[in-house]
Amino acid sequence: MQQYDKTHVRAVIGLGNPGSKYHRNRHNIGFRVVDVLADVHHASWQTVGNLMYAQIRPTGLEQGVHLIKPQTFMNSSGQALSWLTKKGIKPEQIVVVHDELEKKFGQLVLKLGGSHKGHNGLKSLMGVVGPDFWRLKFGIDRPVEREEVPDYVLANFPPDEESQIPVLIDKAIGLLGL
Length: 178
Description:
This protein is of the alpha/beta class. The chain has one domain: 3-Layer(aba) Sandwich (Rossmann fold). It is built from six helices and seven strands, in the order βαβββαββαβααα. The protein has helices at about 30-40, 80-85, 120-130, 150-155, 160, 165-175, and strands at about 10-15, 45-50, 50-55, 65-70, 95-100, 110, 135-140. A seven-stranded mixed beta sheet has the order 2-3-4-1-5-7-6, covered by helices on one side. The longest helix is centred in the N-terminal third of the chain and has 12 residues, at about 30-40. The mean pLDDT is about 95.
């Protein structure tokens, strides 16, 4: 199994939906992580085509890292990847930060490859570059009934979980080493 090495990372894609009404949704945790990462590095967001990006240069890295927030809505996130592939960025140089129903709330896992497990944002990305990119899975837990999933992921974190988000985002950034 390949070990994560921050020196190979060229892009971090946060998955989410554009617009303020989605900001605190469980499905938008990827956006929130890259927003904090941009703030930590004093980077500003720019819009190009169907994505927002910021450039950071973490300590110890020779090259910059692109932070990406697709503006296509979750189910079409893969459309934003053409911008990265035109820059010569390979799938194994990408980390995707996303919500993960199969993990307990707050559990963070960094993993290379795998299936989309029904996550439409990942499915869209995999349709463009295949499965061999890094994923930072941010556990949001799962509702009891399967048919509740769409409403669950588009709901805001409840107050007890929301109060833990800043610490968990810091842990996520620590895992990335950026």
